[in-house]
């Protein structure tokens, strides 16, 4: 990158940081703040970067940021789609696909996710690629946004990697498989004919999974709006949950949040999980 581009990138990051109020991203403002908006260290924490690295970016120095870092910064700074695209151009990176791991999450959906701090929640695409999770969702399910390529889609992992099913009770596997496939068919139908991303995912699953091939041939269609989820957590045990969805206007993304089912001890276990946090979580490919 040229020095001019680095300088423009740093100035743009600084301008976006200064416009955000701490409470908008779940940070208590405190009585003695001396800067408008967020501090550099707060942006770094929100984006999962070191303070030194982010500071270098704002100063127009350092190495070219990766696609993953740009996506994290866009979410931390609540950028609009146009602002996100501008950030990628300043960093001399290609604009990411709409449903990949670097997909833009609408600021309003991120804001809602920030405010849901008492229950696990996350945002994923219509092809079941997790984009962002709150801390309790990470503690419950592991960091699901860490996968890349075809494996970024949980449906792909569900039908190609036995480890993806390990935290589901055995009797729940078949219903989950059928539900995933019916939801995927609905997603493919919503997209334009010949959509490359969806077509590639389906073709790969048809090639690799006889189970998926048989279920796909049934042509069942049903959007996953709300359902029961039972998850066996390695520390707190069985969690019996309601999984609810809020969809974006175009149906390409959904906010999922999990609430304890009435008459179970799941509320107490979630409270314990909040204390235990990610320290005790063996990162797992569950969703």
Describe this structure in words.
This protein has about 290 residues and is an alpha+beta fold. The chain has twelve helices and five strands. The chain has helices spanning about 5-20, 40-45, 50-60, 65-75, 80-90, 105-115, 135-140, 155-160, 175-190, 195-210, 210-215, 265-275; strands at about 120-125, 130-135, 225-235, 235-245, 255-260. Strands 2-1-5-4-3 form a five-stranded antiparallel sheet. The longest helix has 18 residues, at about 175-190. This is Transcriptional regulator with XRE-family HTH domain. It holds the Pfam family HTH_31. InterPro entries: Cro/C1-type_HTH, Lambda_DNA-bd_dom_sf, MLTR_LBD.
Instruction: Give average pLDDT, whole number.
Output: 86
Radius of gyration: 20 Å
- Major sheet: size, sense and barrel closure? 5 strands, antiparallel
Biggest sheet strand order reads 2-1-5-4-3
**Count of β-strands:** 5
The helix-strand sequence is HHHHHHEEHHHHHEEEH
Shape: globular
What gap, in angstroms, lies between the N and C termini?
39 Å
- Low-confidence stretches are 280-287
Proportion in helices: 40-55%
Question: If helices are DSSP runs of H or I spanning 4 or more residues, what is the number of helices?
Answer: 12
Beta-strand content: 5-15%
Secondary structure: elements and pairs:
Elements: H1 3-18, H2 40-47, H3 51-58, H4 67-76, H5 81-90, H6 107-115, E1 121-125, E2 130-133, H7 135-141, H8 154-160, H9 173-190, H10 196-208, H11 210-217, E3 226-233, E4 237-247, E5 253-260, H12 266-276
Helix pairs in contact: 2-3, 2-4, 4-5, 7-12, 10-11
List keywords for this structure.
alpha+beta; 5-stranded antiparallel sheet; single chain; globular; 287 residues; 44% helix; disordered C terminus; 12 helices
């Amino acid at each position: 990158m040229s020095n001019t581009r680095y300088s423009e990138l740093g100035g743009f990051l600084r301008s976006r940081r200064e416009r955000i109020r701490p409470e908008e991203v779940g940070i208590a403002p405190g009585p003695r703040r001396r800067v408008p908006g967020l501090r550099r260290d707060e942006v770094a924490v929100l984006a999962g970067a070191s303070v030194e690295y982010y500071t270098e970016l704002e100063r127009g120095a350092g190495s070219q940021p990766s696609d993953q870092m740009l996506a994290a910064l866009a979410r931390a700074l609540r950028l609009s789609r146009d602002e996100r695209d501008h950030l990628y151009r300043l960093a001399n990176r290609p604009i990411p696909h709409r449903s990949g791991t670097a997909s833009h999450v609408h600021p309003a959906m991120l804001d809602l996710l920030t405010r849901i701090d008492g229950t696990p929640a996350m945002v994923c695409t219509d092809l079941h690629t997790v984009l962002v999770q709150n801390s309790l969702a990470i503690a419950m399910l592991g960091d699901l946004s860490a996968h890349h390529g075809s494996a970024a889609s949980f449906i792909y992992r569900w039908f190609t990697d036995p480890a993806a099913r390990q935290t589901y009770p055995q009797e729940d596997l078949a219903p989950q498989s059928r539900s995933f496939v019916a939801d995927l068919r609905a997603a493919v139908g919503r997209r334009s004919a010949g959509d490359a991303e969806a077509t590639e995912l389906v073709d790969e699953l048809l090639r690799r999974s006889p189970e998926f091939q048989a279920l796909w041939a049934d042509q069942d269609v049903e959007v996953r709006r709300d359902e029961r989820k039972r998850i066996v957590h390695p520390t707190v045990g069985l969690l019996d949950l309601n999984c609810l969805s809020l969809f974006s206007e175009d149906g390409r993304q959904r906010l999922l949040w999990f609430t304890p089912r009435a008459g179970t001890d799941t509320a107490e276990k979630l409270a314990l999980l909040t204390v235990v946090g990610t320290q005790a979580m063996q990162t797992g490919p569950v969703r």
